[in-house]
Structures are given as structure tokens and as C-alpha cells.
């Protein structure tokens, strides 16, 4: 038997429950992670959180038992908790690191193991590689573990609730009272995930906030998966239209991502939301400093950066690449196309809850509906339209797809000159008119992702079709 199948993707190790994601394999990953934490401190501590998926609490307990057996003092959440809340819990406890048991936005038969650093961010790729290497070395070495009751009795395990400390911190970042006093009606779709009740409890604004899918259900009914994208938010859209709400906010399975619907029940793309949040920080909070974006995120940030005289840095996909640059440059914001947004003054990690509150505050400060704010930003930087299509593919054809793209660099795409091609993370084509296309493989699933951003909805469709042709799928 081999452990080679355990590989960390864009954000942690993910696999199908009871297939590869078993208690024994989680213990194996926990052992390697505990050993890594022991290299950082003679008396390491760790915070463990988990989401609402099937057996997440069991996997979290198994991880805590391995940590404790290895001498890592562990703080284990009493209940399902959003990933950003766990990250903030790491910071407040000055822990060596942490773990979140979650598969984020993946379908319900998946689960995952995210490792966090001492600042609450995703662990840096070079340190993830250390853990992964150790996993592959361990088998069949015995894994250390002790029962949770024994760990608790020895003071190696402590059960914690992290809501209030997180909520108190959020109250220092957003004028919650002003939102409570406003007339903004907010619809929240918690997607049966770990974010259930968080916005409702933090805002405490009575019947001005309605919450959908606010029960724990690891099957994630009424959606393909707990990913806050248009295809999964039909119920939220219908509710906004029928009940005349002003905005819809959706958090994914572990609440580190945000999806937004406008007052008409129309989905706002993650790139549009990214630009609006950047506009909010720059125009209304008067923040100044770099903005860090993944290669899949909007070019509108360059337009805003020019207007407000701030630098924009571009990195590969994954917040594990965004966060280190945020820290290094003291950035005011980090963002990625999946709906992950991180902010200065908080943790260098995605937070769908805080992003949602900032979006509401933007509506309050502009006294505009979401569609009106978007028009305002389009007036500043020009119209930008975007979409992404994911296509399942036969894994055996991956090398052939890569070779096809590598060996057939186009000089033009649909009659527009290609001025640059980047291959750091997939194949990204920059066009003369400011449009871009990207073809890359998912880091966690057998999917080929195709992306584009351009100046009209019609060209979006044409460019995505061309992406498929170029990849030969």
C-alpha cells in the first residue's frame, strides 16, 4: 500500500469520504502535520475547526488525538465553524498553526484537510511540500494517538467556542450599528455550511435579514455543491425577487468565499464583486497600499489602481500565493476569482463573512443598490464581462492537452492580436484590446477550467468557445 495518492492541491488535501478520505488516512496526515509543527516550536499549539460535512467532527477529533499524542497542545472547536473564524482563533491564541477539516465548495461526498500557519493564512507551498513529503515517508510507521478523554485530562486538549471573539473583532472593522439602523434588506444563503447563523448573529438586525439553507445537511440539497455561484443560487434569486430584498449574500461550505446577487436577483460575478470591494476600500475607507490578485481575477483592479495610485500585484491561483504577498507588501486587499477576499487589519486569509459585511457597508455609504454601484465602477474603469466554464476530462489526456496548448501558441484569437502569454499557472493569453483568456487545470478535481474577461457578454461566449477549441475538448 502507498500514500502517494495523498497530495495537497490549491488549498489542502481533498478526497472522497470513505474512499481515500478515511479516519486512518486523516491520522496519517495529522501525524505529518504534528511533526511539522514540532519543528517550529518545542511546545507547539494548534487550533482545529471543522465544517458541516459528513463525519467532519469525527475527522477533527481524530486529528486532535494525534496532535495531543505528539505533544501538540490542541484547541478543538465545540461546533462547526467557518474557516476564517478558525484562522482568527489561531491568531488570538498565538498558536503555532491549525487545521480545518473541510472540502470547502466541493460536492457533499468530499472532505478535506487544510493546514494553517501561525498568522491564520494558508500554509506556504514550500511548507506544504514538507508535510506532503513526510506523509509519503511515514507508511507503515506507527501513528501516535491517544483518546480525547485522556488528552483532555492531561491538559493537551481543550474545547473552545470561537464565535464571540471573532464577532467582537468584526465589530471593530465595520459599523454594525449603522447597518442595523439602515433600511437595507439582506437575504443570506448559508448553503447548509459552517457559516450558518453568523451574519444573522453578528448583525442582529431582526427581520431585515432572512437566511436560507440555514440547517445542517451534508447532502447539500437544492444545489450541485455548496459553491456560491449562479448555478447554485436559484433559491436565493427567487427569494430576492419575490420578497423584494436589496441584496443577496451566499457563503460556501466553510464560509471563506462570498457570492453576491443584486436587488433584481441577478448574480454578480466574483470579478465584479472584487472590483466593488476594492472601490469600497479605496474610496470610502481611504485605504492605501497594494492590492494582490490571482491571475484569474479582474483587470478592473488595474484601472482602479491607476485612479487611486496604488500598485496591483498578480500571483498564481490559490490564496496560499496571495497571502504571502499581502503580508510582504502590507496590502490592503487580496482576492481571487473563486470569491475569496482578504483584507488588511484582519487575517491574511479569505473571509466570506467580512466580505459580505463590507459589501453591505458599501451599499450604505453609496446609498445605492448593487447594480447601481456596479454601473458607477464601470463608468470609472470601463465595462468588463466575465465567465468561467469547467469541463470534466479524462485524466489520461492531461499531458496531451498541455502539449497541444504548449506547441500551438496563437498570434491572434478571434482576430485580436495576442500580446503576451503566461504559463506559470495554466495558459493565460493577454490580448491587444485588454481582454484575456485562461486555460488551466483545477488543483483539486479532474476539471479543465476556461476563463475570460472582455468588454461584452457576446465576446465572453465566443472566447470561451475558442478556449475549448484550443484545448481540443
Description of the molecule:
The protein has 473 residues and is α/β, with parallel strands linked by helices. It has 4 domains: 13-163, 3-Layer(aba) Sandwich (Alpha-D-Glucose-1,6-Bisphosphate, Chain A, domain 3), CATH 3.40.120.10; 186-264, Alpha-D-Glucose-1,6-Bisphosphate, Chain A, domain 3 (3-Layer(aba) Sandwich), CATH 3.40.120.10; 269-382, Alpha-D-Glucose-1,6-Bisphosphate, subunit A, domain 3 (Alpha-D-Glucose-1,6-Bisphosphate, Chain A, domain 3), CATH 3.40.120.10; 385-471, Alpha-D-phosphohexomutase, C-terminal domain (TATA-Binding Protein). The protein has 16 helices and 21 strands. The chain has helices at 23-40, 56-69, 83-92, 125-138, 148-153, 163-173, 176-181, 198-203, 234-243, 270-284, 300-308, 319-329, 352-366, 370-381, 398-407, 457-471; strands spanning 13-16, 45-50, 73-77, 97-101, 110-116, 157-160, 186-189, 209-212, 247-251, 258-261, 267-268, 291-294, 312-315, 333-336, 340-343, 385-392, 412-413, 416-422, 427-431, 436-441, 447-454. β12, α11 and β13 (312-315) form a beta-alpha-beta unit. The mean pLDDT is 95.
Amino acid at each position: 500500500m502507498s500514500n502517494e495518492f495523498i497530495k495537497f492541491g490549491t488549498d489542502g488535501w481533498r478526497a472522497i469520504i470513505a474512499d481515500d478520505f478515511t479516519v486512518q488516512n486523516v491520522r496519517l496526515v495529522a501525524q505529518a502535520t504534528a511533526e511539522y509543527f514540532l519543528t517550529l516550536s518545542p511546545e507547539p499549539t494548534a487550533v482545529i475547526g471543522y465544517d458541516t460535512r459528513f463525519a467532519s467532527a469525527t475527522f477533527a477529533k481524530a486529528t486532535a488525538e494525534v496532535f495531543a499524542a505528539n505533544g501538540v497542545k490542541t484547541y478543538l472547536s465545540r461546533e462547526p465553524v467557518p474557516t476564517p473564524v478558525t484562522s482568527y482563533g489561531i491568531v488570538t491564541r498565538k498558536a503555532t498553526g491549525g487545521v480545518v477539516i473541510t472540502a470547502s465548495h466541493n460536492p457533499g461526498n468530499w472532505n478535506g484537510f487544510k493546514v494553517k500557519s501561525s498568522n491564520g493564512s494558508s500554509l506556504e507551498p514550500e511548507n506544504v511540500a514538507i508535510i506532503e513529503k513526510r506523509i509519503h515517508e511515514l507508511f507503515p510507521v506507527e501513528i501516535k494517538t491517544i483518546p480525547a478523554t485522556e488528552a483532555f485530562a492531561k491538559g493537551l486538549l481543550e474545547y473552545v467556542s470561537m464565535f464571540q471573539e471573532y464577532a467582537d473583532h468584526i465589530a471593530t472593522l465595520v459599523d454594525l450599528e449603522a447597518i442595523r439602523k439602515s433600511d437595507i434588506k439582506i437575504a443570506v444563503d448559508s448553503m447548509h455550511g459552517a457559516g450558518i447563523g453568523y451574519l444573522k448573529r453578528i448583525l442582529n438586525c431582526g427581520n431585515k435579514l432572512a437566511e436560507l439553507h440555514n440547517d445542517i445537511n451534508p447532502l447539500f440539497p437544492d444545489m450541485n455543491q455548496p459553491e456560491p455561484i449562479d448555478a447554485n443560487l436559484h433559491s436565493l434569486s427567487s427569494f430576492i425577487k419575490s420578497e423584494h430584498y436589496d441584496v443577496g449574500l451566499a457563503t460556501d461550505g466553510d464560509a471563506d468565499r462570498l457570492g453576491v446577487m443584486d436587488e433584481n436577483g441577478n448574480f454578480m460575478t466574483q470579478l465584479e464583486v472584487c472590483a466593488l470591494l476594492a472601490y469600497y476600500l479605496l474610496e470610502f475607507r481611504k485605504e492605501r497600499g497594494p492590492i494582490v490578485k490571482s491571475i484569474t481575477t479582474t483587470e478592473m483592479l488595474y484601472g482602479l489602481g491607476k485612479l487611486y495610485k496604488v500598485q496591483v500585484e498578480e500571483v498564481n491561483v490559490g490564496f496560499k500565493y496571495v497571502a504571502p504577498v499581502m503580508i510582504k507588501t502590507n496590502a490592503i486587499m487580496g482576492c481571487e476569482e473563486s470569491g475569496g477576499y482578504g483584507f488588511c487589519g484582519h487575517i491574511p486569509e479569505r473571509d466570506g463573512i467580512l466580505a459580505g459585511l463590507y459589501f453591505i457597508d458599501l451599499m450604505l455609504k453609496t446609498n445605492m443598490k448593487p447594480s447601481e454601484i456596479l454601473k458607477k465602477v464601470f463608468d470609472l474603469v470601463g465595462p468588463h464581462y466575465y465567465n468561467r466554464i469547467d469541463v470534466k476530462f479524462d485524466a489520461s489526456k492531461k499531458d496531451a492537452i498541455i502539449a497541444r496548448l504548449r506547441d500551438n501558441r496563437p498570434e491572434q484569437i478571434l482576430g485580436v492580436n495576442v500580446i503576451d502569454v503566461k504559463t506559470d499557472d495554466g495558459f493565460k493569453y493577454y490580448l491587444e484590446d485588454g481582454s484575456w483568456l485562461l486555460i488551466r487545470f483545477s488543483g483539486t478535481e479532474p476539471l479543465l477550467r476556461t476563463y475570460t474577461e472582455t468588454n461584452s457578454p457576446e465576446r465572453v461566449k465566443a472566447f470561451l468557445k475558442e478556449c475549448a477549441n484550443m484545448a481540443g475538448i
